[in-house]
Amino acid sequence: METKKAVLVTSFGTSHLDTLEENIAATEKAIAQALPDFTLRRAFTSSIIMKKLKTRDGIEIDNVPQALARLVVEGYSQVVLQPTHVICGEEYEKLCSLAAPFAQFLKLSIGTPLLKTIPDYWNMARAICTLTDEPAADEAVVFMGHGTAHQANASYALLEYLLRDLGWERAFIGTVEGCPSLEQVIRRLKAQPAIRKIRLMPLMMVAGDHAKNDMAGEEPDSWRSQLEAQGYQVSCILTGLGQSPVIRELFAQHAKEAADKL
Amino acid sequence: METKKAVLVTSFGTSHLDTLEENIAATEKAIAQALPDFTLRRAFTSSIIMKKLKTRDGIEIDNVPQALARLVVEGYSQVVLQPTHVICGEEYEKLCSLAAPFAQFLKLSIGTPLLKTIPDYWNMARAICTLTDEPAADEAVVFMGHGTAHQANASYALLEYLLRDLGWERAFIGTVEGCPSLEQVIRRLKAQPAIRKIRLMPLMMVAGDHAKNDMAGEEPDSWRSQLEAQGYQVSCILTGLGQSPVIRELFAQHAKEAADKL
Amino acid sequence: METKKAVLVTSFGTSHLDTLEENIAATEKAIAQALPDFTLRRAFTSSIIMKKLKTRDGIEIDNVPQALARLVVEGYSQVVLQPTHVICGEEYEKLCSLAAPFAQFLKLSIGTPLLKTIPDYWNMARAICTLTDEPAADEAVVFMGHGTAHQANASYALLEYLLRDLGWERAFIGTVEGCPSLEQVIRRLKAQPAIRKIRLMPLMMVAGDHAKNDMAGEEPDSWRSQLEAQGYQVSCILTGLGQSPVIRELFAQHAKEAADKL
Amino acid sequence: METKKAVLVTSFGTSHLDTLEENIAATEKAIAQALPDFTLRRAFTSSIIMKKLKTRDGIEIDNVPQALARLVVEGYSQVVLQPTHVICGEEYEKLCSLAAPFAQFLKLSIGTPLLKTIPDYWNMARAICTLTDEPAADEAVVFMGHGTAHQANASYALLEYLLRDLGWERAFIGTVEGCPSLEQVIRRLKAQPAIRKIRLMPLMMVAGDHAKNDMAGEEPDSWRSQLEAQGYQVSCILTGLGQSPVIRELFAQHAKEAADKL
Description:
Largest sheet of chain A: 4 strands, parallel
Number of strands of chain A: 8
Oligomer: homotetramer
Largest interface: A-D, 26 and 26 residues
Order of helices and strands of chain A: EHEHHEHEHEHEHEHHEH
Helix content of chain A: 40-55%
């Protein structure tokens, strides 16, 4: 009898249908191409987003237990669970503990987020340098990471550290909910008076609410408004990480490594 | 939002389609009637039987993880798992440990087999007295229980003990794989020389292989042949416990008690 | 470096110092002799009894976690945990779950109570026939077991069943807290009108409160008083199971089997 | 009856008796002073170090299971387990899983390492600024952290990031086994040509083998030798973090927060 294998790509989710397609679906496709013997499945972790998609658009998406349960029902026996998270934070730990009970019924291998090992950080730093042009002498790029109260919050500082090693002196990473804050980023921008123009770009899987509102929004407390108030000329790039083939390839590699452990 | 509730009736299973209908399906129906707000579902635990049904008859039946996983997928949140086991033996313990991981995703209440508490034993002894007529002075009834190496094997002796309290002096319980053995039953039959006729009847959920072959078969080592070789006139009743409305009602009560704990 | 091995004999406990010595200590000694390479340790499970011994007599006895923790502290790495229970009931299950966490720090093998496998029942039935003389034609022996609401309560009936196979027709087992009750035993005594004299004997590890009061006491509801009220001539044997070298040998065998699994 | 409380301070350990006293013992003392109702206990996690201390010096130190088991034996019921780790890395996770089984017998609260929450990072960055004088214009301080393949390795970069926010422009953190490497630190030193003198200092609990050999040793691959080879004038400060009252106070606060959760 043939072994049935699946790869379950798990994302926080988004209610923006454009970014769902361009980021999440595109990343799922890249992972599926890297694992041709595996059936591709999708799960989200945000129940608010799943409810919104169902109510508003009639789109039903499994949560993690449902998606794994569905694989049990259908007789799958080997499953790669690949998250599309950036850091090994709370969401990733929650995912691992939701999946754990299914290890009694499925051979289960969980892939890692983008940033876990030291080689991961170098790969990601190099990938970031492909997301946008290197800033000119009067320019800076400021990436908006999510940030978290979890200890994984330190990831952003190491990533920026490595950008320096790669020669990008005017690339900064701030976070919405953690550290570095925008205030800390501004302090560093001010230290380089030549900088006049700022490119803002999300360091998140999707260009969703945070990107559209907290980063690029018209409100006075958006990053764009705050940086303009400091006298900078600000432009916004509204693409999520999942739109980059280089980033998608990193996720595909992580999924492949997880599959190799099955 | 409405709470979706299900009762999953779990049986060892049988490949005899007649007894499947008359015993298992009939018991499931009685349980469903006792729990009108619960969707009825079926699972078997014997993979050999499930394979046989699928290959031979194209009938697909879920095992326990599949059936519970299916309920997770379909959004059920409260589940009664009611086994159709007679004793709290190895099968029941296996069932409990298979179900345990799902308690993280479902409110799960597991009903008990027919024989757990002391009132259970009295109820079951009284039920047995309804399965067949009380044996006449020259007659005995010998029930064939399954028997097990598990400590639950002691259940059969207590059940026979209570049959005496209920006044049935010529009802005996032997087991195929445990203790009392047929040899021990014969010793007791011999001690009552008035007994000339023996009625054999399965003390198992279904009248399947054990009943048809080990009990009533033509082979020299069937119980029937062995008792005939001892000079007894033997008749066989080929009905499983599930054919008795009284037994089915006991299962329904156990399921109801489990539902009350949700 | 030498492997340090210990056998921890675990009893419910007793506050009667005589029976503690004659039953528990004697059984521990027999187990220790069967496992000469193992350090002998004692634990009780009844906190009421441990408190009483400490307050009244200044005797400190470890509970199970303390005794196992002490072995960890002292660098023991292989431990047999041998209970002195009769049945695989609630006390035994509690013991197993108290010991489980220590399996991360110790190689732990838990011996079984007197009654688990079918051979155990036969061994125990044969041992019972050595505890007292076979009753004469006008006599019966009634053993007082503890009894329980746990499914292991069925053990007593199977044990009595086997006493019949061994030819003891006038030996009965009743229980204080379970089934068979004394009432059920009396029903069977009455069925044999030749019986005029009754020997009462505990089927418990120690001859403690149950034996001294519930069985042999002067109160009108003691077994002795109730049987005398029925017109029987009653004698009481106040020895616990632990006073029998045959029973002690059974425990020693169980401990040895557990040691073989280390 | 009085509740017995203990605080178990757990360190990786050191075989250098001077640093054991000045760092570990001093930190334990500070923690004990913050928790006056708690008995102070010590455990190490490195079995190599415990073996060396025992063989060489006759000093016996408990590992974590032994220390917790000892508290169970002695009747303690509330225990704070405070590690002296810097980051939430592998050692900390191992510690948590070693302690977990004891939560069935003890009310157990595990304090966090120095670096977990964002406020922790700020506190630690401020503490670092008290460990040595702010470097002069021609000077840099280079701290040697341990580093790890665990995702917690990112901690060092965030800590250095915050040192900049506090105005320390010429303080760098490298690691022995992780990232940033000394090579990455040297790249940053070179970028500030005014720097001629370097102060080396361990960012580890004790000034043990890593500090004495890998940092300050005479061998050509020690950090000192490598920096001297680059033309820098190097001085070494051989004090562990535990010698700083400010750092000790941070550990005491973490232990106090853990005690508040009991």
